[in-house]
Amino acid sequence: MQLSHAFSGYAEVIPASDAEKRPPVLAKPVEHKHSKYAGDEINAYIAIRDNLLAEAEETPTAATVHRAWIANDVVETFLKPARPPYGAQHLPEIDAARERERCETVKAHIHDLGAPVALAAS
Questions:
Q1: Could you read off the pLDDT of 86-107 as tens digits, one per residue?
Q2: Residue 4 phi/psi, 5° resolution?
Q3: What pLDDT score was predicted for residue 101?
Q4: What letters, b where the CB count within 10 A reaches 16 and e where it falls short, cover 87-108?
Q5: What is the spatial distance between Cα 99 and Cα 71, in angstroms, rounded to a whole number?
Q6: Beta pairing class for 10-14 and 3-7
Q7: Which three-class secondary structure state does DSSP give residue 2?
Q8: Model confidence at 81, in pLDDT bands (50, 70, 90)?
Q9: Are 65 and 113 in contact (CB under 8 A)?
Q10: pLDDT (0 to 100) of residue 52
Q11: Which of 109, 112, 39, 51 is CA-nearest to residue 78?
Q12: What is the chain's Cα-based Rg?
């Protein structure tokens, strides 16, 4: 496979063997403002999950319980340790550990809410 790079209207064709010899390009570290933005976004998803859980508690239908379950699953995914180069785009570990425990509690609560819905459907 050959790579082509355009520069000022000219294209340089690099043979595949040369492209494979290049050192890997390392990503730039994430700036602090981006880290805060990522944390704020994760916290927004946590708030959405909590609102959907409250809705499921108020009206435990199959749809509301399912939405709360999906939101909790999304939050759990976002709380997994970040892989490089995304290390700065996560919650601080203390907050993440607390929220992972909360996800387990919410999961058990959703299971309890889902049981009456399943019985009502049968």
A1: 677 778 888 889 999 999 999 9
A2: -125, 130
A3: 95
A4: eebbbeeeebeebeebbeebee
A5: 13
A6: antiparallel
A7: coil
A8: confident
A9: yes
A10: 96
A11: 39
A12: 23
* Token pair of 5 as six digits: 């790079």
Q: Average pLDDT in the 26-31 region?
A: 48
CB 75 within 8 A of CB 49: yes
Q: What pLDDT score does 27 carry?
A: 47
**CA dihedral for 67, 69, 75, 81, sign (positive or negative):** negative
The first and second tokens of residue 17, run together, are 């063997």
Checking if the pLDDT of 45 tops 80, the result is: yes
Task: Tell me the one-letter amino acid at 110.
Answer: I
Q: Please count the CA atoms within 13 angstroms of the CA of 98 that sit on its side-chain side.
A: 7
Q: Which amino acid is at 74?
A: V
List of E strands, 10-82: 10-14
CA-based nearest residue to 55, from 40, 66, 45: 66
In whole angstroms, what is the distance from residue 118 CA to residue 122 CA? 7
Cα(115)–Cα(95) distance, integer angstroms: 30
Beta bridge partners, 120, equal none
Confidence grade of residue 37 (pLDDT, cut at 50, 70, 90): confident
